Amino acid sequence: MDIDYEVDFSKKEHRKANVFGIIIGLLGFFLYVNEYVQTSSIRGVEYIFPILYGGLCYFLGLVSGLMFFVAKNPLAIFIP
Length: 80
Prior knowledge:
Strand content: under 5%
Distance between the termini: 25 Å
């Protein structure tokens, strides 16, 4: 099985996967900030954790989007 692991944003499926990853990343960031993921309030320098969590959610959404849109795997949409 020959799978291309490079993300090329000139391809429509890869751009769709990127948009899906951005949406999942923003959703993860806002869920963390609004205390759905953690229970204590966030102040000052602690905003680094929601940014890291949002970045991790973006990466997970991008991988899931690539599997869904490029590899045509319908079960990949449920990963995030």
